[in-house]
Amino acid sequence: CYAMKANPFLSGEIAATADFLEVCSPGEFRICERAGVPMKKIVLSGVCKRQDDLEPIFSRGLQIGTYTVESVSQWELLSMLSQKYGRAIHVLLRLTSGAQFGMAEADLLCVLREAGKNPLVSVDGIQYFSGTQKKSEAKVREEWSRLDTFLEELKNQYGFTAEKLEYGPGFPVDYFGTDPGLEQRMLNCLNECLQSLRWQGIVVLEMGREIAASCGCYITKVVDEKRVGSEHFAIVDGGIHQLHYDGQMIGMQTPPVFQLHGGGRKETWTVFGALCTKNDVLLKE
Fold first, then answer.
1. Phi and psi based region of residue 194 (left: phi greater than 0; alpha: psi -120 to 50; beta: remaining)
2. Cβ of 232: how many Cβ atoms within 10 Å?
3. Cβ(255)–Cβ(243) under 8 Å?
4. Which residues on adjacent β-strands are paired with residue 42?
5. CA distances from 68 to 92, 106, 128, 210, 255 (A)
6. pTM of the predicted model as reported, rounded to 2 decimal places
7. 3-state secondary structure the chain
8. Torsion over CA: 131, 91, 195, 156 (sign)
9. How many beta carbons lie within 10 A of that of residue 38, not counting itself?
10. For 143-199, what is each residue's pLDDT tens digit?
11. Per-residue model confidence (pLDDT) at position 155
């Protein structure tokens, strides 16, 4: 499942390959519509689901593949709209990792009990996502152990067999070339976790950055240069809003840089973007 927020411009192309596209906002949904993404491939997610945004989908008869349920109130809204328009829908119940996303186990069980009262809504399974740029194999193993236990409890104690688990691995991307083996180690760890599952169902991996990070280069042009004391400053027509990503670590790192044109004597420069903030630093010294 491609989380299209990672690069919306790839949505149309990836729709021909990915099983699903995760869509988190009305704007993202409109992008998918314009790109001709099949509605059945859309997983309509997001913590903010308003009736004004959802009702046109139901009234137009668009058959979204899956809706995620992030709260009891989201469940009530989706259930109401399905009954109002007589539309059968499929949902995934999002389990929280302790953040603002998803529901606590008690709320999720409450929704499961209510789901049986609306025959138009099919609960396909669980969605779980706990963050991005995760570099800890121990954390991934801990998550899968928790999910495996929870899915077994749903079956044995509450009579609910989840057919599907959509999991956001949040795999890291080695943007700065500091740990070349990192991505492969995390993939190997995930593979081991999948092989050891007691629960047997469909696992959908929600990948965004892992798919899109290497799709292209960012090109920016020096538009001005100046010397302030002993320091050399170059101003480019881009900025950190296009390039810079710290993830879980605050601090400057140096991305791989290639000079396409020019050349001459070697000097030490700091490269700034065009944003009106001192923090718009692409390369320091």
1. alpha
2. 15
3. yes
4. 21
5. 5, 17, 10, 22, 36
6. 0.84
7. CEEHHHCHHHHHHHCCCCCCEEECCHHHHHHHHHHCCCHHHEEECCCCCCHHHHHHHHHCCCCCCEEEECCHHHHHHHHHHHHHHCCCEEEEEEECCCCCCCECHHHHHHHHHHHCCCCCEEEEEEEEECCCCCCCHHHHHHHHHHHHHHHHHHHHHHCCCCCEEEEECCCCCCCCCCCCCHHHHHHHHHHHHHHCCCCCCEEEECECHHHHCCCCCCCCCEEEEEEECCEEEEEECCCHHHHCCCCCCCCCCCCCCCCCCCCCCCCCCEEECCCCCCCCEEECC
8. positive
9. 13
10. 999 999 999 999 999 999 999 999 999 888 887 788 889 999 999 999 999 999 999
11. 95
The neighbour count for residue 214, using CB atoms within 10 Å, is 10
- Between helices 26-35 and 51-59, what is the axis angle to 10°? 30
Residue 250 has pLDDT above 60, yes or no: no
